[in-house]
């Protein structure tokens, strides 16, 4: 099936500053692609050009097969956009706001249905200025899904939401994905990406430096095998094992390894042979957080080159 969103070598400059430096990715129908990255990495700047709100300074974009900027009139009715800051008139009620928005759409959902979807039905008669930050975020989402979009752009959709509202939002997003909606999302919450993303990209300083499924991105980082030795057994008695040995403060041994099974096998065989009890033994693959932090703390250009070579 053709990709619903295609982004090829896109660049975006603000004056002399190039905020987006050659970004390429695709999103298939019914897929959720998450853009992660450090502050100022260029996620919103990328999202805005894909939404057709601005023209890229280089590269090209297709949404539903069309240029979202040049063919805005054709693309706009089929997309839903939740900006980082919505900005509705403060004195209108929740229902009035949604009705006003629905008036700009060709075949909107009933307003009550949209408010129900985001759990705002009980706040329908309340002026926007009296909503909490999280409730405003949910109103932004209601408006984004009002037009039954084929493609949904969500810029940090759950920032400021309490844990229950976040989970409800995730549930709604999953439901939309099941209905075949394609979603491009930015987030600072790594658990959100882990929960929702079919594929993701980590951006740093205007470039994508890691991309793939969560498992693929995490696979770029070493796994950790950790345990404590009995007091009578010193660390120098450990055998040669693949990986880097780290001793943490409590006397706990950590091995960072690219070959978790080989490291674990070597360790367990040694322990059995020498009758050593390894306490609190754990073996875990890297987390998305580790992969993210590795990107955030390392030199950007070298990583970008690696990502380009790998692509
Ligand atoms: N209108 C603008 N004029 C000038 N510079 C801008 C403008 N918008 C964004 N920038 C700059 O472009 C860079 C990327 O910003 P962008 O908002 O895309 O990052 P982001 O990854 O979404 O960050 P955050 O996670 O903080 O929201 C930043 O250095 C920002 O200061």
From TrEMBL:
Domain of life: Bacteria
InterPro entries given in the database record: AAA+_ATPase, ABC_transporter-like_ATP-bd, ABC_transporter-like_CS, ABC_transporter_ATP-binding, P-loop_NTPase
Main location: membrane
Any GO CC annotation of this UniProt entry: plasma membrane
UniProt-recorded Gene Ontology molecular function terms: ATP binding; ATP hydrolysis activity
Any GO BP annotation: response to antibiotic
Keyword Transmembrane applies: no
Residue ranges occupied by any ABC transporter domain in the UniProt entry: 5-230
Protein location: Cell membrane
Membrane topology of this protein: Peripheral membrane protein
Assigned keywords, A-Z: Antibiotic resistance, ATP-binding, Nucleotide-binding, Transport
Gene3D superfamilies: P-loop containing nucleotide triphosphate hydrolases
Name of the protein described by the UniProt record: ABC-2 type transport system ATP-binding protein
